[in-house]
Design a protein that fits this description.
45% of the residues lie in helices and 12% in strands. It is globular and about 90 Å long. Strand 11 and strand 12 form a beta hairpin. The chain has 24 helices and 17 strands.
Amino acid sequence: MNRPTSPQNSILPGCVSKADWFMAIVVGCALAMGVWHALLTGGGIVGGDTYPYFFPQKQMMAEAFAHGELPLWHDRTGLGYPLHAESQAGIFYPSNQLLYRVFPVNTAYNTSILLHYAMAFVFAWRFCRSQLLSQTSALLAATVFVYGWFPARLSLEWSIIGGVWFPCCLWLTERLVSRPSRAAGCLLALAFGMHLLAGHFTLAFITQLCCLGYALLTSGRTATAEDTDRTIGRIRAGGYVTAAIAMGICLAAVQLLPTLELRQLSQRDGSNAVFNPAYGHLPPVYLTQLVAGWWYWHSPEIVQSRQMLQFPFLMSSANTNQVEAHLYIGLIPLGLIVCLLQHSVRQRLRHTHWKIWLVLSGAAVIYAFGWFMPVTRHLPGFGFFMGPGRYTIVTTMGLAVVSGLVLDALLRRKSRPTQYILTALIGGITLCDVLASGDAPVCDAQIVATPPISGLQDSWIAAALRDKPAARLLASGPNVGNLFGVSCIPQYLGLGPAEYFQEDALFETTPDDGGTEFPSDADVRRLLDRGVTHVLTQDHVGSLSPDLELVNAAPDSFLNRVWARGNAACFLYQMKAAKGRIVTEPSAALNELSWIEQRPSRQVFRVNLSEEAVVNANELMFSGWYVSVDGHEAVALTAGGFHRSVQIPAGEHIIEWTYRPWSFTLGACVSITTLILGGVFVTRSSV
């Protein structure tokens, strides 16, 4: 049967005018620039994962692009890790490939945030139009979705970078199911692939599940007169979407295969207790924030005391945080949904998908509670990701759509100017409502006028380390020291090599209050073995180990802003007996060492040995690293761990370590082949 028309429009929902598109794009861009105006004027985001996690990745990415390289390996976080495999870096994502080649890191980061907020709004609006919402109600629903779910997650770049593809994939799924074609299928596959390349597979997996569920639930409504069997219609719709998902996975193979390889060698291999997929769930009682956000749940006391975890029906033993547990759509949209209790309102919506979206929204919330993780953690996909609270992105979209449908039903008999005025008023109030709800104390990041990264050029610590490319820091702020251009431990990784989560990889980074010598003798030995040359602390060390000496103590123009320490001093110490990156066994065999090239994915150096020795590079030995001696491939003595070792005869030799992961090569071949075949598939259909 034919799809019904919108209550306020005489055209089919797929027919959106150029004027409608123009209005949505203007509103989306205006909201992005208005809400995040400080990012337009050179400001920056601080707090949460911005500097400990994302900026070190972006800096490495930008430097690699500047050298004409792909940033496959990150040699500054810990003793290194495969950057291309840690998917949140998104090194193959098109906007990252462009922005970090053209702009400085902070400008590229800000531009990416603004661009994706505008895109998310336009995609959400377009999907809402396909759900029979009028132009004005679709704009309202897009506002509820984008600014109700994402701003609280400001410190998590992947939320908006990946989340932008959620409404896009839903819209293209609706288009494929209602009007199947090769072009529609390939477009949906391309969107799925882009979602995976964006760098966070949790939202991509949720999107795939939601699109598949939506196709199966709505396919009966889109059956043609010749295909009246709803079961066959559902199977056909599910097959279309499943095929698009499979093609999208192949398109993103260049990202997926390296990540799967890393996963098998990471803390998420199923045997490490550090990984708990139920972390980041939505405690059931926290659902009351939908109506009591301003009364109780968003107060600093509840966030700081973590009382959200101290209520009945909390069947998950995992921890969570206020960002992952945030769910709020605004009081007016919630009030509109309550109007569904009226029979007359439900009657006006009988030709829409409001019931389907209530089912999907409810299912997403229930799963977000974490109750099913003991079972689903053993299922493919479900057990790989943490943060079941992220499923509330489905709930936010569903409730936004339903609230827009109800608004259309209530305003059906109003004049067009009245509809515009009332919807604009509701939209303005709701925007302020959801933005305030997602602000502090829920959000763990903020925007400052002067980004900390701008202080690097005046940093005395950066100046002290600038001429020491082999330097490696022990610092209390994981990964932040990477931004000085040097290696830093301990590391902070979401998906990291398993070695980093073992007991001997953990270090005390700050002295205790009991006057115990810092670092301890045992830690000094381990630090020297890891190639650590300097120790960076926020406080003066009273009982300093005799193996360290103070380099300088002063406020730092970069670290003081990152750590929000005002004018307090930062303390840099040097290891007296630092071994550096290259050592030999026996140590007396090394007569001379000189570096020829030192890049993240390629290290070349010359050694002069008085006798046969094992030459160790104090770097993580990971799958994909190969060694050659004097231009001839050699056999590495280690297959893992914190040393790359090769046995060398006496004399002068050139040793070259190169990172050539098979997963990247195979993944790139699969992605390129799929892209070509997809293009041929679409082209032949139009001939």
